[in-house]
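Hi there,

I know you've been waiting on this one. I reran it after we fixed the sequence typo, so this is the corrected version. Both the input and the resulting structure follow.
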Amino acid sequence: MSNSRIALLMLLPVFFLGCVNYITPPPAAEYYYINPDKDLTDVGRVAIVELANVSSYPQINADVTKALFQALQKRQVFGLTVVEQDDPLWRSLQLDMDSLYTLEELLAIHRKLTCDAVLVGTVTEYQPYPHMVIGLRLKLLDLKDGQLLWALDQVWDSADKTTEHRIKSYLQRQKRSDLTTLYENLVAVSPLGFIKFVAFEVAATI
């Protein structure tokens, strides 16, 4: 066998690996921030405050909050608790996505929620089938010093080709590769399925 043919055969795995990485996007949201000076594994417990909602669908924030809790729980990065909107703690704290808190207010939140960080956010956009769209703005705040630990701002659109590729990757990770086409269609048309997909992508960034 000639040296040129040997070199070509050695390069084939690299070529195909490059093609796979190009075709299949990473299974995670793209527009997020992680504080490089903080280690999320050092956070003991996080309170997920039920998301605010500026869409015209009143139930969507509760559904997304529940899906986020389940997806983050599977990641097992930190302990979790959920504070729902009908909880007296939620009304007393009046946590807001864009608020700036003093150290005294952070200490009060820490004591009331018995947690080390708080995840707050907003459902910025939602459209149901036939054109599924979900937009989220989220941030994770360290209650010890008020620093931002993590943040995300993104819109998922089922009609977007990149989102289609991500759904395929998501289903493969869920060990449903034998039913990928069927489940891919279900995720794209089912509100619950699409919400779970979005929650998976959010959790994958943490």
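Quick highlight: The first helix runs from residue 3 to 23.

Best,
R. S.
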